[in-house]
Design brief:
Distance between the termini of chain A: 30 Å
Number of strands of chain A: 23
Helix content of chain A: 25-40%
Strand content of chain A: 25-35%
Oligomer: homotetramer
Number of helices of chain A: 16
Structural class of chain A: alpha+beta
Strand order of the largest sheet of chain A: 3-2-4-1-10-9-11
Shape of chain A: globular
Radius of gyration of chain A: 23 Å
Largest interface: C-D, 46 and 47 residues
Largest sheet of chain A: 7 strands, antiparallel
Chain lengths: ~450, ~450, ~450, ~450
Amino acid sequence: MGLHEECGVLGIYDFDGSHVAGMLQTGLYALQHRGQVSCGIVTNDDGRLHQVKDNGLVSEVFTEKNTATLTGNIGVGHVRYSRADDLPENAQPLVSRYCKGSLTLAHNGSILNVKELREELENGGAIFQSTNDTEVIMHLIAIARTRVRSVEQAMLTVMKRIEGAYSMVLMSPRKLLGVRDPQGFRPLAIGKKGNSYILASESCVFKSLHAEFVRDVRPGEVVLIDRDGKLQSFTDFCGKTPSLCAFEYFYFARPDSMVDGQSVYQTRIHAGRLLAQQHPAEADVVVGVPESGPHFALGYSYESGIPYVEALIRNRYAGRVFSEESESRKEATLNIKLSVIESAVRDKRVVVVDDSVVSGTTAAAIVKMIRAAGAREVHLRIACPPFLFPCYFGTEIPPKKDLLGVKYTPAQIGKRLGADSIGFLPVEKLAELGLTKDKNCTACFTGEYPVQMN
Amino acid sequence: MGLHEECGVLGIYDFDGSHVAGMLQTGLYALQHRGQVSCGIVTNDDGRLHQVKDNGLVSEVFTEKNTATLTGNIGVGHVRYSRADDLPENAQPLVSRYCKGSLTLAHNGSILNVKELREELENGGAIFQSTNDTEVIMHLIAIARTRVRSVEQAMLTVMKRIEGAYSMVLMSPRKLLGVRDPQGFRPLAIGKKGNSYILASESCVFKSLHAEFVRDVRPGEVVLIDRDGKLQSFTDFCGKTPSLCAFEYFYFARPDSMVDGQSVYQTRIHAGRLLAQQHPAEADVVVGVPESGPHFALGYSYESGIPYVEALIRNRYAGRVFSEESESRKEATLNIKLSVIESAVRDKRVVVVDDSVVSGTTAAAIVKMIRAAGAREVHLRIACPPFLFPCYFGTEIPPKKDLLGVKYTPAQIGKRLGADSIGFLPVEKLAELGLTKDKNCTACFTGEYPVQMN
Amino acid sequence: MGLHEECGVLGIYDFDGSHVAGMLQTGLYALQHRGQVSCGIVTNDDGRLHQVKDNGLVSEVFTEKNTATLTGNIGVGHVRYSRADDLPENAQPLVSRYCKGSLTLAHNGSILNVKELREELENGGAIFQSTNDTEVIMHLIAIARTRVRSVEQAMLTVMKRIEGAYSMVLMSPRKLLGVRDPQGFRPLAIGKKGNSYILASESCVFKSLHAEFVRDVRPGEVVLIDRDGKLQSFTDFCGKTPSLCAFEYFYFARPDSMVDGQSVYQTRIHAGRLLAQQHPAEADVVVGVPESGPHFALGYSYESGIPYVEALIRNRYAGRVFSEESESRKEATLNIKLSVIESAVRDKRVVVVDDSVVSGTTAAAIVKMIRAAGAREVHLRIACPPFLFPCYFGTEIPPKKDLLGVKYTPAQIGKRLGADSIGFLPVEKLAELGLTKDKNCTACFTGEYPVQMN
Amino acid sequence: MGLHEECGVLGIYDFDGSHVAGMLQTGLYALQHRGQVSCGIVTNDDGRLHQVKDNGLVSEVFTEKNTATLTGNIGVGHVRYSRADDLPENAQPLVSRYCKGSLTLAHNGSILNVKELREELENGGAIFQSTNDTEVIMHLIAIARTRVRSVEQAMLTVMKRIEGAYSMVLMSPRKLLGVRDPQGFRPLAIGKKGNSYILASESCVFKSLHAEFVRDVRPGEVVLIDRDGKLQSFTDFCGKTPSLCAFEYFYFARPDSMVDGQSVYQTRIHAGRLLAQQHPAEADVVVGVPESGPHFALGYSYESGIPYVEALIRNRYAGRVFSEESESRKEATLNIKLSVIESAVRDKRVVVVDDSVVSGTTAAAIVKMIRAAGAREVHLRIACPPFLFPCYFGTEIPPKKDLLGVKYTPAQIGKRLGADSIGFLPVEKLAELGLTKDKNCTACFTGEYPVQMN
């Protein structure tokens, strides 16, 4: 609870005679957990673009009426999480017209050298209408495209210049492209339904569309679907050591997704088991903090034999209201969002499992609520190691000064949060979850960044 | 999944110098599960009424701006579930002016003899601006009040005339009343925070307000809080055999509520245990269908020792969109609302536990989804007995012709739903859950109506 | 500029096979000048009512979508001007269900004995959901209807009880009624298009519908259109001395309307001529203050020979914004609403004609603007006599203490407003305009009320 | 009635310590007649930009709440008329970030060589997010700025490249610029209030702000207000023969504006007089078609001695609804928009004066309405010569095939429109109005284009 990734991307090229807007909308529902601030769909009806983009949830932005205007058999969709300094003009997908017609871009990630690239472009006379990385990439593609023969070659040219994390979907007048950075920081997968191709941040999209999962886009790969309905692969940038963000498994991804071949749900169950081994507790019941806590808690229960209870209930009607709450109101509003079932914890020793601890405000409030409901003891178990380092690849981790793990020992943290005991997943156990240096970025826990940081 | 109760009611009389609007809003969040179509708050600022009422969720209807206009230390709130034939003018709380000033009424229930009462009133020259029972009650109170000395005496006079289910909150210029029908079909409870009194459909409200649960309003009781801050009780209609709706425990009430002294959560766990005893299964995992299924499933798991998995995930961003869907779209949209975690059920024999089966459309679709995810066997377990009889007390049970339990044997139902086996809670086990004839209405299962039906 | 009437009413019974909603909408556009705060349409589709009512202009409230729901061949419409203490629940038409089905009522006017009637009803046990006169009338009709054989007889029974000004349209399940109070304070006219009947506050409606003007409803008359397509007339209350509000001609009515046989436009031209005779001016140009001023100014120009110039321009995009402005902002916002064409008044002696003066704020600001534009002299001419007395029949004249005419002589008023001279239409000249005691109410100017005031 | 100009521009640099948003909003009200589809304001608070831009009228787009966010002492505003193919992303002012910070641009006009410039930019790798000329100009300025020392030098560099009509306001981090094309096709004027400078499309803005008119921006001039509060002038492109659009006087400009030293109102009066001389009529009354017709009609009346009547009334509540009506609905909706005062025209010979005739649909409908109101004869007088040639400078004249003047003689046009006679202002009389070749573009009437057209 408390961290945010920035986006989910989606692209569909339909070869079975349908308009893609309906499928894009369904697919964005399945990606909504990756961003709730704005969303958009751009479709391509034989070269003519149609778009609907706005602040709000998928269920709010798309209406029967505006969706009907989104004709065409190629399309790109996006859901966005917005940071404090974000502007409406940063809504995606970004559409522009360049020398070869239209170009539409949906992006998830964070470009490390964006400042330098932007300055260089500005010094060449470029203008920018947003502050997001996507527009910088768009400029680079347009410039590259004046020198090479195709948009895919332009993309490959641009990949020489941009560093960092990016999973992208691009739509040109007649092509759909999927792009993943050489280290594969962010997920991107390929699905197929009939003859139609789907590119999506997570595989959960495919099931909601009754489509087949084909495979993940490889780190560094550019995949191209052209109007002949074939998928081509460009692997010029493949071969580097991959670095998929480990936190996708703990928090970002939906539990029913497979990310780079690994089940999110099973990883969470497994993490819960490891936690039970490493930090056993003399307790009567195990509780998980929604949304992802319950899966870790189940693993803890399986391993420890302590019964799992569903004693923390999220009020599903409260979510939106308090999304931009101030830190100071957090505890107050938590009483609307979460409830404790007293009869499940009264006079019990309770293990509470959460995915992570950032500032600790929420965790402390939950400990307090459970005690108020009559628990005799509260033992906090955190499914990932403490955050110790900033992320430069799109995960919004607070500055070091606000990270509990930097300032305090685990025991001190437990005390501050009011828990009788606390236990984090030991950093060395990440490998047992399959989250290893040769595959994953764990820099926020370890400080070992997969790229040379200046 | 599939049944709906009509309302949640709330009333607060603040004696600690505050405006009640904020507390009412928080309280309505906690009652939102009882009705999502419209909601409203009416406050009383020294005799002057202020109101905000509209279609939509609490989070949509109340804004910082309009809540600021709701000044006053007495107030009434309401959330409403709306039937197909319902009209905007039926939104509650209902406000009217009568011989003694203003009267505000929030009502949950269903008056059996409403048609006769309305005809009688119309024949006397009355006009009606809505079609709901509340306006009929309002008329009766106004007429009674011309003959008796107080609003509470008027209410008691009216109670001689109205039959059926009603839990109500009334606000007169200087009083707040709570009323529960003599059989107590619908819940109503009393809470206290500091010197202030709270009346609410469910006790979960009190926790969200950091208030104390005092007691349930007794069946037939009228409680009155006047401006001296004292609570008076009128028990003229108490003493009948109570008949609290048993289905409150299975479906309507929030699991963290205590209803008439009994924990909803524990009742659900217990029902799951009984189900496991009565209908054991050779299976590998137990799954619950959200929202209430998981608690029954946990009970089933505890009793049977079969591991509980959280393999059905509700998309919390999808809820509103499809609330008014046609029957025919239900299966299609279920794929957006619910996802199966394949890795948790693949090659497994799965027990699926749901609260009830009405038309079976949803259950059949879920069985299909779980099979599609690779389950080897699917065993349905239903936490309450089959519905066999209509409800006249506010629960919207479909007509007999649409009730599976009327037309088919359990085995036939299981087959139609595509399950390898099926098991319902035996009707004779209701007593073991504490749901007995001398306390509860179970007419929808048994046909034994607690009042003489004509 | 500054006074407001409260309403426009409209009713259509179509016998040519059409839905009336489109015609009602067009007709309300033509009545919009009589009320801009809220509007509504209720249609009757073979007994089933449909309604759209909301705050806002006709162009805002009615959409293609909601108008499509308004099926049926009988309908009633209303535009409302709202006073400060007015409530959303007072929106009209008012719909209720009573012993004989539905009843829909749209009302323009002011009932003098409403307080007594309401008390009497309340003492009999009636409840009220609004504060407007319409609901009181509705109650009385419903009660009367229990004793007489038809809604028209009920209406006639009620007319014995209610005193004051009312022009109304009523719709019962199969009938449309038009009602005008015995003194005919407010206008109401009958139109016909093909076989269909139209009842409307003003005749300008008929032209916008390409319908024929048939005649005015007579003071005291009840007209009834039943499903045989015939118009019946009930004249029980006809025969009193009529008292049509004289101010309809000066301000309320649209210039293209004929009200009780007299052209509004020609009355205004005539008033301008009389003003020129009574208060000539040595001047170079004549200017009118929009909206109605220009017609008086033309008359002044015709009579005096002084050229008419259109030197005051209303910004037609500014209207709504400042409709609820505070007195203090009036002058400031007037600069957005009105502009002076400098080249038309520079170095000129200017006659400025306005319909009336209430508080004088606007007039003073206009004099100032015209001087600022370079006028050498500004001579104010006011087309009606000074307001000296309150109105009890629906015109919102400010309290005596705010009426310039009560506190000051005309010369003093001219001075306060900054004019070089001022002239009001002499009260004794009203008769020359055809506004005579045996036909019109001029009480606001003369204090001679057409009914005995208590 | 029927032609549209595309925009109004506004810029304010306040040196008296105020935020400019309020003044910009008031100023845009005064420019609203130049564009009703979208509007926007961008302010500059010490380098930090704030913006509000949306579809809708000034009164709809700007609220107390969003205007409060528009802090800063420099700002730019825009109102836009949108053509059929126009897109939301074309809303202005356009904001971008370039090598020297932010740049904000509001533009009125039409660049002739925009296609070539855009292709050249695209071939250099530029991307475009809109289809309007403004973005092309923005690119050119950004590129130029990489080579010259200031934004004003960049603007002057760009002026060498762009051809056609443009009046613009630019805002850089610390400067406000006004730019007018070398031929001055579109107006732009300078005002001053206290120490603050105002740049606006029309002088009517200054009066609404109680500001002084200083002078018009000269054709080809760039004016610069920097943070020292001084106005500098760059005249590199001055000296060409000016070509202010003559149609500004007939239709676009507000009558209370002075455009390049000439009063719009007086020009219209004068045109009416000339029309009376050239095309006298045996008639009883003269009527003008709103909005601009009445002023021509007054001139006609002054010259001919035929009395002016205000017999055509515009319904001021109808304007917005039908703004995007289809040609086929025009006549039908005209009955809502316009009414004839029967008593002013019945049995009369009527001269009807309008500003211009494009397709003739509206004029024919008006003739019909006036006849239906009982006029004996209808004589059309058109205040400008027939349109015979397309406009390339921003006036949206229909294609030749839809221009009545191209296909028919005046007599034939009169017949088609149902008039008893017709008369256009003779093209050779434009000079008498002061609209001469050495000052004005009259190409739409004469075909003599002020620039070499390819």
